[in-house]
Amino acid sequence: QTQEGGEGDKNQATGSGEKKDIKQEKNAIKKEQQVKTEKDREAQQRAKEAKIAENELVRDLKNQLKKALNEQKEMKLLLDMYKGVSKEQRDKVQLMAAEKKLRTDLEEMRQQLKKMQENKRDDKRKLAEDEALKKIKQLEEQKYELQKQVALQKPTDGSWPGGVHPMRAFVGSHEEEALLNEMEVTGQAFEDMQEQNSRLIQQLREKDDANFKLMSERIKSNQLHKLAREEKDVLKEQVSTLTTQVDAANLVVRKLEEKERILQNTLATVEKELQLRQQAMEMHKRKAIESAQSAADLKLHLEKYHSQMKEAQQVVAEKTSSLEAEAYKTKRLQEEIAQLKRKAERMKKMELAGTTLDEVMMEEIREYKETLTCPSCKVKRKDAVLSKCFHVFCYDCLKTRYETRQRKCPKCNCAFGANDYHRLYLSN
Known about the structure:
This protein has helices at about 1-85, 85-125, 130-155, 175-355, 355-370, 395-405, and strands spanning about 385, 390-395, 420-425. By secondary structure, the chain is mostly helical. The chain has a domain at about 375-428: Herpes Virus-1 (2-Layer Sandwich). A three-stranded antiparallel sheet has the order 2-1-3. A hairpin with a 5-residue loop joins strand 1 (about 385) and strand 2 (about 390-395). Helix 1 (about 1-85) runs antiparallel to helix 4, helix 2 (about 85-125) runs antiparallel to helix 4 and helix 3 packs antiparallel against helix 4 (about 175-355). One of its GO terms (biological process) is chromatin organization. It catalyses: S-ubiquitinyl-[E2 ubiquitin-conjugating enzyme]-L-cysteine + [acceptor protein]-L-lysine = [E2 ubiquitin-conjugating enzyme]-L-cysteine + N(6)-ubiquitinyl-[acceptor protein]-L-lysine.
């Protein structure tokens, strides 16, 4: 019954120990699960941060692309505005055509002025013709003769007879009538000539006014021509400036298109890389979950193996300590047996040799002295012991071996340290 009670106590102790081990394993598993969940949270947090960073990068790239597209649109608008230079070129052509027309009009007016001057000279020549002069001269001569005749027929007292006008005397005759008719015709011709002269003078004045107008118009046309030339030069400069600006705008547009293409390629690459990273993240997440599960299983097995190993180590340590004790005892017994054998052999030799008791005692004394002498130097007495193996030597030999790093027992080669050899006092 006492044995059964002892076995029951042992079973209860082992059961309580197993319960404690199970609780410890459960606590360890809970801790591992907590660590695992914390690691998963950290991994999820890192993944979220990486995803946020990648989203920000994609957003920045999209903003840059949008900005580049807006700049491209602005440059295209500027380019379209610059392409409107063709209208100014048409205006320039129109100005050149107007200038050419003004030149032709000016040339025509010059021709007209030249013709008018020629007509004026012709009119002057016509006015200065001999026929007109002759007619005028004849009329003047006729007038002079008529005045002379009238003066001859006029009475001395200055009064006409019968109160009749002197011209009445000629009325009845045909000669007088012809003369009067000729005088009337001549007067009429003279008046016509005067009217013609006045008309010609008026025409000359009008032509002078027209010439003055033509000269003023010519001056104006020259000024317009000069202004048109200056405007033409300004337009040329503007055209060259706009051409350089258009070239610069085209260069900027090409650069922006190249930049847009690079940004689109970069965006596509980033999107592909983001997709690959997301796939890799999902794959690593699955692997992490699987590895965490396998790690938990392996940890359970490891804990089990550790407990088994500890038990085995305890058993081995106990058996090793018992074996070492038995070996130590066996070694001491073997040494005693060897010593006794030597004594027996010595006694046998002495019996066979027939030695006396004194010799035997002397031999024992010698052996005892040899036993008390240090087996290492064989000179000094034994006065130190090794606490590891309990072999006895002189203190100087042990100290010398320790200082020269020969830190093993000379007999059994058991290692010793600075605190493993001590003084041994054999005297009273």
